[in-house]
Write a structure and sequence with these properties.
The structure holds two protein chains of two kinds. By secondary structure, chain A is α/β, with parallel strands linked by helices. Helix content of chain A is 39%, strand content 12%. Chain A has 16 helices and eleven strands. An eleven-stranded mixed β-sheet of chain A has the order 1-3-2-4-6-5-10-11-9-7-8, with helices on both faces. Chain B is mainly alpha-helical. Chain B contains three helices and two strands. Chain B has a two-stranded antiparallel ribbon. In chain B, helix 1 packs across helix 2. Chain B is flat. The chains are: A alpha/beta, B mainly alpha. Chains A and B meet through helix 9, helix 10, helix 11, helix 12 and helix 13 of A and helix 1 and helix 2 of B.
């Protein structure tokens, strides 16, 4: 696969050739989509600005929960199956202004609320490396489009780990920036206090190049932050191995798990070997202890906060404000019928969890306590980031379910390990998944998370690790 | 112990109907969901921590200047409407 720089160089040299190659990219997208189902829509005749930018002439894909003017934007939900926005999301506007060529809108778990890539209204997205396995989600189509070399980068969104987990399942790079670094204007809101725009690529450098262009303060998003003094691509030059990292000790003690399947043992062994290897290369990596009760509370905290915020955010999907008008005798029955027909069972399940947490008698016990746990965890990590440059963990548990499998994680501590990346959303931290090239039945990726707005530090670690992994295939 | 009526009541508040199959499935799962949610209450003295609603250190909030912006054309507004009559949006009857 060509890098963004290579695409851009070719564009500068010969713009007509770029146009011809774009049609080849569209053809490639269509062919691969027939089997992998990663696109909701492919743009037959894309237009692009002739400008001087680092992503000019570079094709990309955008998750279908971003508003694209005059282009279908469904959120992979039946309730928005015909929705054509009248405006571009800020990130889409910036991509267009920079001359990138959007060739398609990608499938997600319905409205971003899922982690499997199996609940989009247009069907299941297959894993790029093993089509029997789930692709991960919710940015499923974006991850698979990049992994299959259809496009060198794709835009996703990340509320819990929706960019970083599918990136790991498809062995590519997935970057969730600090909260507010990229404007959320035009992104269908799922849980506003956690939602982040993210980027999926094959190379760390490509993620930095794209984010330098699409980040920035936006008057349409009051939570967006000024980052004019942040230069992510430039931060790659500061790559060095003198950074101090930590990981959570409890996850590597097998006695903490109710069950210790073979895949988990192999997974943790791989990580330990990798840590030892990095130490030999000069990294200072220490283990840190966190109360198991707090670790066990990570995923419940996420479920309660995100589901509660979602019930509010998606209350406008009622067949009157948004969505196809349903039949009914009065306004309430019209809205109820539209919502009942428009959402899949999984979405209804999440809404009901939110509704339960927001019941008057439950608000203190669940909704507010979840927010208290969020602060507790964020305080712990904010303190750790005063001492350490980054938090290093493996992504997942060493197991990817099959598409047809009705998978449930019964062991709560294994569930905590599987969902550890949600910490990145609690504190708004920059967080990136990187492939390691360790030989394994499924991809073995690691994640680096740094302090809030320390995206440059995170990138300098990520690029150094990428070089180490690239230079030593099967290094452990 | 949750009943089908409990689950239907939570759904009803969000203007959602559940099929019998959906209700049964969720009712059977909800004890597990509650058990999982209760893990947050196992943390000692959690009620002494202030709730975190947002990332507390978001940037300065600057209001946009009060300038007139171009608005949508009638054609654009009607593009996503299911029911249109003489360039107007048809809405359900709200007065009984």
């Amino acid at each position: 696969m060509k890098t963004i720089e290579e695409y851009n160089k070719e564009y500068i040299k010969n713009k007509t050739k770029t146009l011809t190659e774009t049609y080849e990219t569209i053809l490639d997208a269509k062919q691969k989509d027939q089997y992998y189902n990663m696109f909701v829509s492919i743009i037959e005749d894309p237009v692009f600005e002739e400008v001087d930018s680092k992503i000019a002439g570079v094709p990309c894909a955008v998750k279908d929960n971003f508003s694209t003017k005059d282009l279908l934007s469904t959120g992979s939900s039946n309730i928005l199956k015909d929705y054509v926005p009248v405006f571009d999301a800020t990130v889409v506007k910036k991509l267009k202004e920079a001359g990138s060529i959007i060739i398609g809108k990608t499938v997600l778990d319905e409205l971003g609320m899922g982690g499997t890539g199996t609940t989009g209204h247009t069907g299941v997205v297959k894993n790029a490396l093993n089509s029997k396995l789930i692709s991960g989600g919710s940015s499923a189509g974006s991850a698979v489009a990049v992994a299959l070399d259809v496009v060198p980068f794709a835009i996703g969104s990340d509320t819990g780990d929706s960019v970083r987990k599918p990136a790991a399942y498809n062995n590519i790079v997935g970057y969730k920036p600090s909260y507010g670094l990229i404007s959320r204007y035009g992104l269908f809101p799922f849980a506003c206090s956690l939602d982040t725009v993210g980027v999926l690529t094959k190379k760390v450098k490509d993620a930095a190049i794209v984010t330098d262009i699409i980040k920035g303060k936006d008057s349409f998003d009051m939570t967006s932050v000024d980052s004019k003094n942040m230069f992510l691509e430039k931060s790659l030059e500061n790559s060095s191995n003198n950074k101090k990292l930590f990981y959570i000790k409890e996850f590597f003690d097998l006695s903490n798990y109710k069950e210790t399947p073979e895949y988990l043992i192999k997974f943790l062994t791989n990580f330990n070997s990798l840590i030892n290897d990095l130490r030999l290369k000069g990294y200072k990596i220490e283990e840190v202890s966190i109360d198991k009760k707090i670790l066990n509370a990570i995923n419940p905290t996420y479920m309660i906060i995100s589901s509660s915020e979602a019930t509010s955010n998606y209350s406008n999907l009622n067949g009157i404000i948004f969505g196809p008008r349903a039949q009914g005798d009065n306004v309430e029955s019209i809205m109820k019928n539209a919502r009942t027909q428009g959402f899949c069972s999984l979405i209804k399940r999440r809404f009901i969890i939110g509704s339960y947490a927001l019941e008057r008698e439950n608000q203190e016990k669940y909704f507010l306590n979840a927010k208290r746990v969020r602060r507790l965890i964020t305080n712990i990590f904010n303190d750790l980031f005063k001492t350490y440059d980054g938090f290093i963990m493996p992504v997942g548990t060493g197991y990817i379910p099959e598409i047809e499998e009705d998978f449930k994680q019964e062991d709560e501590f294994l569930n905590a390990l599987d969902n550890i990346l949600q910490i990145g959303n609690f504190g708004g931290y920059p967080s990136i998944t990187i492939p390691t090239n360790i030989a394994s039945i499924i991809p073995f990726c690691i994640n680096i998370t740094s302090g809030y707005l320390k995206d440059e530090t995170m990138f300098s670690i990520a690029t150094d690790l990428e070089k180490i992994f690239k230079g030593s295939d099967d290094n452990v | 112990m949750f009943t089908n009526e409990d689950i239907k009541s939570y759904a009803n508040k969000l203007l959602i109907d559940l099929s019998e199959e959906e209700t049964q499935k969720l009712t059977s799962e909800f004890d597990y969901i509650k058990k999982s949610a209760d893990l947050i209450n196992e943390i000692p003295n959690i009620n002494e921590v202030a709730p975190m609603h947002m990332i507390s250190y978001v940037g300065d909030i600057v209001l946009r200047s009060d300038e007139e912006q171009p608005s949508l054309t009638k054609k654009e507004i009607l593009k996503n409407c299911d029911s249109i009559k003489e360039e107007s949006v048809c809405v359900p009857k709200v007065v009984e």
